[in-house]
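Supplementary Text 2. Reproducibility record for the structural model of the 372-residue chain.

All settings were left at their defaults, and a single model was retained for analysis rather than an ensemble. We include the record here because the model underlies the residue-level annotations in Supplementary Table 4.
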Amino acid sequence: MKDNLFAGLTPVSRKEFVHLSRDRATVFFALAIPVLQLILFGFAIDTNVRQVPTAVLDSSRTQESRRLIESFANSDVFDIRYAAASEEDLYEHFRAGKVKAGIRIPPDYARLIQEGRQATVQLLADGSDSTITSQTVATAGGIALQESLRRLLGAQARPPVEVRPAVLYNPGLRSPNFFVPGLVAIMMQLMVIMLTAFSIVRERERGTLDQMWLTPVAPLGLMVGKIIPYGVLAYFELSVVLAIMRYVFQVPVHGSLALLYLLSLPFVLTVMGVALLISTRAQTQAEAFQMAMGTLLPSVFLSGYIFLIENMPAGFQAISWFIPATYYIAIVRGIVLRGAGLAELWPQACALVLMGCLSVLLASRAFVRTRG
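Retained model, structure tokens:
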């Protein structure tokens, strides 16, 4: 039996399955908490800027100024809520946090327009939120350009050049279509790392892990047998979050689910290897939790989940290459949103396979060294 590298795998795996079935708190943490986080983040995160609270200081009070204000109000970005009586009143709305944008129309606006001269309208934006600021400034520029063309060419004339954008894969520009597939990777990583690491550290705290070393179980059999149940649980979690993504957030799946399940395997192996490495270093569950959370933050901020990797400094781009979530998020978004196949995703798949093999190898060596 000692000649078998995986001796004892089946009984260890069976024991872990029985433990999971009896540990309701662990199963609840593994299934309910990630699902709850997925729903909360999926509904809460919205990068589309709409109906920004806006105040207007119309010092002109003419038909021309009212037409301009209507152009702002008819856009989906500006929500005209307040009419300021003075500049001090306008700034007071900003200080009170009532508005995020302000429009100031000068007293000579109509006269300058009628004389064919340039009239200046000032847009005030709350720079504390860069996303709202950039969107409101861009929209205001577009409204001003349309108003200028209408006055130069006439109401019925057409501009010589027209741009008709066609948005691929996400025509409605829905934030859940972008964020929810990425959350699949983040939630799976968090669940697999924490449960796997907690399982081994908990056994070490109770002394049962040392007892298992005295049984005729090979080190690799013990390690693989303990992680198999959590791998099965990870795939079940993947199925649950994909169902929520499709039927709760209405995110269409354009690619092959079979390919997604297949390419999820090296990612699960990679994070399990990371979990085993954590379990060999951590002596308590509190330490394991801190180390697990330490792997989560880089996966959220440096993997391309929120911020574009190409816009990061070169040093952080290099760090992102060593984060498994970087490649898995690209795979999930590629399959779900663009209908990509293995021909397009093979670089990410190869990177995850390499990471999976390396992490499992390093974890195996570290895990075996803890014997005795």
